[in-house]
Amino acid sequence: MKTYKDIDEYILAQDESVRPRLQKIRSLIQQTAPDAIEKISYGMPAFHLHGNLVYFAAWKNHIGFYALPSGNATFQKQLEKYHTAKGSIQFPLSEPLPEKLIVDIVKFRVKENLAKVKS
Fold it and tell me: Got the DSSP string for 33-52?
């Protein structure tokens, strides 16, 4: 697995055609969770806020978005059109990014992580 020092390096290492999508996802997460800390985890961009928040990664035909199982379970209806697994969502490169859905999932994960801290 290739290692990256930070998200900037990760994005620059990806195909030029996918970089704007990765930057957009990063920006949406930063705006929605401004206190989250950026890092590389499992070889991909990740955000941490009182625990893992979300991850994302570029693949050949899609952007993988990882909201952990709880994010996928909560947004099951909105995710019907996407290929999903236990904690992953595939946003095809052939379609526009579902920006509102990404923001909604990140908001949910922030609330979930903050609730864990309070309990």
Answer: -TTPEEEEETTEEEEESSSE
**Is residue 89 within a helix (H) or strand (E), and if so which, with residue range?**
strand 88-92
Q: What is the pLDDT of residues 4-50, one digit of tens each?
A: 999 999 999 999 999 999 999 999 999 999 999 999 999 999 999 99
Q: Name the residue type at position 17.
A: S
Specify whether the CB–CB gap between 74 and 81 falls below 8 A. no
Q: What is the pTM of this model?
A: 0.94
Distance CA 31, CA 10 (A): 20
* Residue 39: closest CA among 24, 27, 28, 54: 54
SS (H, E, C) 48-68: ECCCEEEEEEECCCEEEEECH
